[in-house]
Description:
- The chain has 2 domains: about 1-50; about 60-300, Fic-like fold, CATH 1.10.3290.10.
- The protein has a 3-stranded antiparallel β-sheet.
- Strand 1 and strand 2 (about 10-25) form a beta hairpin.
- It is mainly α.
- It is built from 11 helices and 3 strands.
- Helix 5 (about 125-150) runs parallel beside helix 9 (about 240-250), helix 7 packs antiparallel against helix 8 and helix 8 runs antiparallel to helix 9 (about 240-250).
- About 55% of the residues lie in helices and about 10% in strands.
Amino acid sequence: xxxxxxxxxxxxxxxxxxxxxxxxGKVVQxxxxxxxxxxxxxxxxxxxxxxxxxVELIEKNLAQRIEKKLAKLQSKRPxxxxxxxxxRKKFEVEMTYHSNAIEGNRLTLKETYLxxxxxxxIGGRSMKEHLEATNHREAMEQMEKLVSxxxxxxxSDILNLHxxxxxxxxxxxxxxxxxxxVAIAFTxxxxxxxxxxxxxxxxxxxxxxxxxxxxxxxxxxxxIHHKFVHLHPFWDGNGRLxxxxxxxxxxxxxxxxxxxxxxxxxxxxxxxxxxxKGDLAPLATMIANDVLKSLxxxxxxxx
Length: 303
């Protein structure tokens, strides 16, 4: 008998093709194949008429831990005003640093803090790198206002966020969709035609306004983030804006701001590549683990 076995390792879900047979009175199991993605496993099951298991984007134990900590955080709301302000400043600096660093900005975490909180100019760093930091903080402030107003997100809101991200850097691109084909470094992915961008952006806006609770919101945030960077609707600033859109969906549901860290860049790009091939689970799991880190930090601060 051949069947699909689910395996969980470090919060990630893997699928194995296993053969089970009886030899000399004993049941012997042999792994015939290790699938590289959920999509590959599902296609194999369909092609060979093997029963496919229920697919989970986020492993059950990880999902339960997140749900438990989210409920605990919700029970402590409203948070003390001064505590909330200190958390906001910390996450503004750290998210700005990590999101820009993923894109190649050379400012260190300490330098980012000095630029944002002390207004300092850092020697050996370009004006563009300084503007990327101050612009990102302003975009985060705008993102927080979008979440707090508790109204549907509009396409114009996304364009305005992009305009802030590229303000004084590429003014002619800021807040405008690309008007031609684009090539992306370090990937074989070719984004859809620029003619498709307005239509596909309406779907992303729809998903941003779709109701989702708990870890389902994390799965939706992963889907939104992937669809956005896959579309690559702007000439520049897509990664930074995509991570802000992900956070809009998470924060709408009550999660704290969540940071995809510079140290995860390689895994992050690999997860996006797998999502391009139809397997969203690695990206959803990565985001879920980072959500858990943010929840733990918030609860430890409030303890």
